[in-house]
Amino acid sequence: MCGRYASSRAPEDLAGLFEARWDPRETLAPSWNVAPTDEVWAVLERPDRETGEVERRLRTLRWGLVPSWAKDPNGGARMINARVETVHEKPAYRRAFTRRRCLLPADGFYEWQPVAATATAKAYKQPYFIAPQDAAVMAMAGLYEFWRDPAVTDEDDPAAWLVTTTIITTEATDAAGRIHPRMPLAVAARDHDAWLDPAHEDVHGLRALLHTPAGGHLDVRAVSTAVNSVRNNGPELLEPPAES
């Protein structure tokens, strides 16, 4: 799975990189410990409400997908990932896969490996940061969905709509597979247009756009166990673990 990641780039930089429109009134602080239910940056394409023209936008979504038919949003925290093997079939994801796809910019993601107890130390989970070797931004493949809050009577009120996202994952290979059996999928820059195009609904063609991040050229390194707590944040989380 992908349950935690880092996203520290400024929105103006992301907007330029992905050639997307961004409203400066919409902001998020850099995060080195993005966790489920957090607001995250996403790149998506939708028709403008006034002109009808499709435009690419950088905007915030809540991580943890809530299907449009859900009775309430409480299950979103359990739907942070969608398996690529079944994403086109599962009721919670299949409509979004053909109509509402996005890119989730990331510096890299975290996975954990259990460390057994010894005579002098307790068992614990060692976090690893997995990122492109060239430090380029990862464009993780995601889906997004709208959920209408029935408690808000005016559908034009922004509070009437919750917009959530999930990350598509696959079986881990290469360096990442030594740490955890699952990993996020990414979309190469040459395929961004095709992936984001809401008119592209061919399931087989869409699945062909999904690849291992950075073509498998990933750097995997142990980092501070401080990242284990969602209360901790900052670039120091990427520092090597303290000597025991």
Structure description:
The two termini are 28 Å apart. The strands form 3 sheets. The chain has a 5-stranded antiparallel β-sheet with strand order 3-1-8-9-15, with no helix packed on it. A 5-stranded mixed beta barrel has the order 4-5-11-10-7. A two-stranded antiparallel ribbon has the order 13-14. 9% of the residues lie in helices and 36% in strands. It is built from 4 helices and 15 strands. The chain is globular and about 65 Å long. It has helices spanning 11-17, 94-99, 192-196, 203-207; strands at residues 5-7, 21-22, 31-34, 39-47, 54-63, 81-83, 101-106, 108-115, 124-132, 138-148, 161-171, 182-184, 186-187, 210-211, 218-222. The chain is mostly beta strands and 244 residues long. 35% of the residues are buried. The model has no long low-confidence stretch (mean pLDDT 93). Keywords: Covalent protein-DNA linkage, DNA damage, DNA-binding, Hydrolase, Lyase, Protease. Belongs to the SOS response-associated peptidase family.
Q: What's the short story on this structure?
A:
Belongs to the SOS response-associated peptidase family. It is built from four helices and 15 strands.
Low-pLDDT segments, ≥5 res: none
SSE order: EHEEEEEHEEEEEEEHHEE
N-to-C span: 28 Å
Strand content: 35-45%
**How many beta-strand runs?**
15
Cα-based radius of gyration, to the nearest Å:
18 Å
Task: Tell me the major beta sheet.
Answer: 5 strands, antiparallel
Strand ordering within the main sheet: 3-1-8-9-15
Mean pLDDT: 93
Helix count from the secondary structure assignment: 4
Instruction: Briefly note the structural class of the backbone.
Output: mainly beta
